[in-house]
Amino acid sequence: MSWNAVIAGYAQNGLVENALKFFKEMQLAGVNPNLATFASILPACARLGALEEGLEIHQKINESRFSSDVVIANSLIHMYAKCGKIQKARELFDKIHNPNVISWTAMIAGYAINDYAMQV
């Protein structure tokens, strides 16, 4: 639990590079990320525009039991949109069985920040 608290603390306080470093340290220590970990680290990737790290994290999510979680899907949509990969964000959105208001907001914001306002 403390790993997640530190990652979330770094990410929420704008120390996103530290969050990513600590996430890597966690894995090196043999601790597997969980839902809370992924929900905290993906916004850090989005904020940095760290697509490569985001892709690696997405792969880990696909290997876990969290790939169908709407919170994780929303975080991935946000991360891909912030990294300029709006098509990938849309693919993920389209796979959500019941998108919630956060899903819709993430997708609309993604279109807006990528100058696709007419796509909405």
What does this entry show, briefly?
With 120 residues, the protein is mainly alpha-helical. Helices cover 72% and strands 0% of the residues. The model has no long low-confidence stretch (mean pLDDT 93).
What can you tell me about this protein's structure?
The protein is 72% helix and 0% strand. It is mainly α and 120 residues long. It has a single domain, classed as Tetratricopeptide repeat domain (Serine Threonine Protein Phosphatase 5, Tetratricopeptide repeat, Alpha Horseshoe). Helix 1 packs parallel to helix 3 (35-48), helix 5 runs antiparallel to helix 6 and helix 6 (86-95) runs antiparallel to helix 7. It is globular. The model has no long low-confidence stretch (mean pLDDT 93).
Q: Write the CATH architecture name.
A: Alpha Horseshoe
State the low-pLDDT regions, or none: none
Using the coordinates shown, work out and report the CATH topology. Serine Threonine Protein Phosphatase 5, Tetratricopeptide repeat
The tally of strands reads 0
Can you tell me the number of structural domains? 1
Average pLDDT:
93
Form type? globular
CATH class wording: Mainly Alpha
CATH homologous superfamily annotation? Tetratricopeptide repeat domain
Structure classification: mainly alpha
Please write the string of helix (H) and strand (E) elements: HHHHHHH
Number of helices: 7
Strand content bin: under 5%
User: Helical residue percent?
Assistant: over 70%
As a whole number of angstroms, the C-alpha radius of gyration is 14 Å
Termini separation (Å)? 39 Å
